[in-house]
């Protein structure tokens, strides 16, 4: 009887150890996948942010050029008008 109990206890211990190892491995794999996903998301977010910043910079440049052109046109028109009037 004692031998049977010992064998059962040993089997249970081995089973528990195996289950713990499997659980740890699964958790590690899940964590790794989550980390990879987070890293991917962060990389994509960074790339999107960079593209957004580039677009914003281009828009700023375009706006500045347009404003400068409009200002120069207004100045030229104003000088012409002043000269004609004078």
From TrEMBL:
<feature type="transmembrane region" description="Helical">
    <location>
        <begin position="34"/>
        <end position="54"/>
    </location>
</feature>
<protein>
    <submittedName>
        <fullName>Uncharacterized protein</fullName>
    </submittedName>
</protein>
<keyword id="KW-0472">Membrane</keyword>
<keyword id="KW-1133">Transmembrane helix</keyword>
<keyword id="KW-0812">Transmembrane</keyword>
<feature type="transmembrane region" description="Helical">
    <location>
        <begin position="61"/>
        <end position="85"/>
    </location>
</feature>
<feature type="transmembrane region" description="Helical">
    <location>
        <begin position="7"/>
        <end position="28"/>
    </location>
</feature>
